[in-house]
Amino acid sequence: MTNNSAGPDEGLADVPAPPGRNDSDDDFLTTVPLAWTPGVAFRDAAVTIGGSPWTVTSLPDDVLPLARKLHALGRVGAYVKTPEEKRAALYLLDLGIIDPVPHGNGPVTDVEIVVPVYRDWDALDRCLDSLVAENLPIVVVDDASPEPFATAIRDVVEAHDARLIVRAQNGGPGAARNTGFAQTTAPFVAFVDSDVVASPDWISRLRPLLNDPMIGAVAPRVRPDVQGDSAIELYEETRSELDMGAVPSRVVYGVPVGWLPSASVIVRRSASSNPPFEPEMRVGEDVDLFWRMEEAGWTVRYAPDVVNHHKVRTSLKDFSSRRASYGGSAAPLELRHKNRLIPARPSLTGLGVLAALAVGRPGLALGIAGYELARQRQILPPRVSLPVAAEMAGRTIWSDVFWLG
Questions:
Q1: CA distances, 106 to each of 140, 143, 170, 205, 207 (Å)
Q2: Residue 15 domain-assigned?
Q3: Rounded to 5 degrees, what are φ and ψ at 386?
Q4: pLDDT value at position 231?
Q5: 379 and 313 assigned to the same domain
Q6: Which of 43, 220, 283, 354 has its CA 20 to 30 A from that of 377?
Q7: Whose CA is closest to 12, among 338, 340, 332, 341?
Q8: What is the predicted pLDDT for the residue at 254?
Q9: Is 134 a domain residue?
Q10: pLDDT score of 123
Q11: In the prediction, which pLDDT does 8 show?
Q12: In this structure, are 72 and 188 located in the same domain?
């Protein structure tokens, strides 16, 4: 089915605030197993280092039994059952100390899929092949592709029994997603780039995570679909701009997963502005949306236990232009989200240690490190032991030296 009536882009509205949780909203905890988040240190069986946001947390006594249980189980995880465990689970989830493990609970019926495409009909063919397994409605938005690509796209869409919307004017991927979003009515919308090959059950595995009424969006890991051994492919395999790594996380400031790409993501309609993406942004519009969600109070989750793959651009021209365009999003993002792009905030202690080492005065550096240990002892909760305070002092100094040195 083809619709050529896509109208002009509309202005951007605010992201609505989340509803908050009430006593009946913790039922979602029984639908997915919970597991300890990799990389979160557990010291003295009572103190955590890490999470999202990254911090040192002296866990309350009523949270400790569940924390110790899940830490011992690792990524095996467990379901929570009692009211006490549910309260503890919410506390740990909101700090990123534990995370929900994607787990399919049967067919999904309340998600529609939107796929923006421009010219790339052959990648779209592979993408739709991977999406039909879950038998969900698919809307493909052709962002004003010229011929012969437009005809090829139409043929691919018809072959997969999807719905085609053709934009009259090219507006970029964000505008195309907005057009598709406007043509859907389901409470959840999965955005998938046309160069993505999806896991056959990725939506059914991630959808239960959205039973938490505070989650506005959840995304899988997106790995490069490396087919050869060229220098660009080998680079992409370890440095892909779409691969956010193997560690689950909430998307918040100051952690490695500080943003999400929209190459594959499921969005809650009620957590999105209308339209979702800033029409004036051709690059970085996905980062902007998820930051606006997080700033409005929603939780945005990254769940790398589920993995999709994206096509690797192997020509130097395509690779370079894509990297340059991503870099071009920094200025508009900084204007919309002040100071969120600052890559490092070094401490005076770290600067002092680095300066002392640079001028060959290790004794002075050691003295500054001792000051940092005393400072950590003062600012950390009383329950935190001296070894943990020393670890935090070392982490602080090492982080500063690493990023600046």
A1: 25, 34, 38, 9, 10
A2: no
A3: -60, -45
A4: 81
A5: no
A6: 354
A7: 332
A8: 82
A9: yes
A10: 95
A11: 45
A12: no
Instruction: Examine the domain organization and report whether 271 and 211 are in the same domain.
Output: yes
Rounded to 5°, angle at Cα 332 from 331 and 335: 90
Give pLDDT, residue 105: 78
Q: Which two tokens stand for residue 127?
A: 């993408």
Token pair of 387 as six digits: 């070894």
pLDDT the model gives residue 295: 93
Block residue for tokens 């409005």 = 296
- The tally of domains found in the chain comes to 3
pLDDT tens string 155-214: 999 999 999 999 999 999 999 999 999 999 999 999 999 999 999 999 999 999 999 999
Give residue 324's identity as a one-letter amino acid code.
A
In angstroms, what is the C-alpha Rg of the chain? Answer: 23
- What does the pLDDT read at residue 184? 97
Residues 244 and 377 placed together within one structural domain of the fold? no
- Collect the ranges in the chain with pLDDT lower than 50: 5, 7-9
Strand-pair category, 47-50 with 188-192:
unpaired
What is the residue range of 276's domain? 111-336
Is 9 contained in some domain? no
What is the 3-class SS of the chain, one letter each residue? CEEEEECCCCCCCCCCCCCCCCHHHHHHHHCCCEEECCCCEEECCCEEEECCCCEEEECCCCCHHHHHHHHHHHHHCECCCCHHHHHHHHHHHHCCCEEECCCCCCCCCCEEEEEEECCCHHHHHHHHHHHHHHCCCEEEEECCCCCCHHHHHHHHHHHCCCEEEEECCCCCHHHHHHHHHHCCCCCEEEEECCCEECCCCHHHHHHHHHHCCCEEEEEEEEEEECCCCCHHHHHHHHHCCCCCCCCCEECCCCCCCCCCCCCEEEEEHHHCCCCCCCCCCCCCHHHHHHHHHHHHCCEEEEEEEEEEEEECCCCHHHHHHHHHHHHCCHHHHHHHCCCCCCCCCCCHHHHHHHHHHHCCCHHHHHHHHHHHHHHHHHHCCCCCCHHHHHHHHHHHHHHHHHHHC
